[in-house]
Amino acid sequence: MSDQAFYSGLQQKLDTLKTEGLFKPERVLASRQGAEVVADDGRTLINMCANNYLGLSGDVETQKAAEAALQKYGYGLSSVRFICGTQTVHKELEKKLSDFLGTEDTILYAAAFDANGGVFEPLFDENDAIISDALNHASIIDGIRLCKAARYRYANNDMADLEKQLQAATEAGRRHKIIVTDGVFSMDGTIAQLDRIVALAEKYGALTMIDESHASGFMGKTGRGTHEHCGVIGRIDIITGTLGKALGGAMGGFTSGRKEVIETLRQKSRPYLFSNTLAPMIAGASLAVLDRIGKSTELRDRLHENTAYFRREIERIGFTIKPGTHPVVPVMLFDAPVAQKFAARMFELGVLLSGFFYPVVPMGQARVRVQLSAAHTREQLDKVLGAFEHAGRELGIIKAA
Ligand SMILES: *Cc1c(COP(=O)(O)O)cnc(C)c1O
Question: How far is the CA of 207 from the centre of ligand 1 (A)?
Answer without folding.
Answer: 21
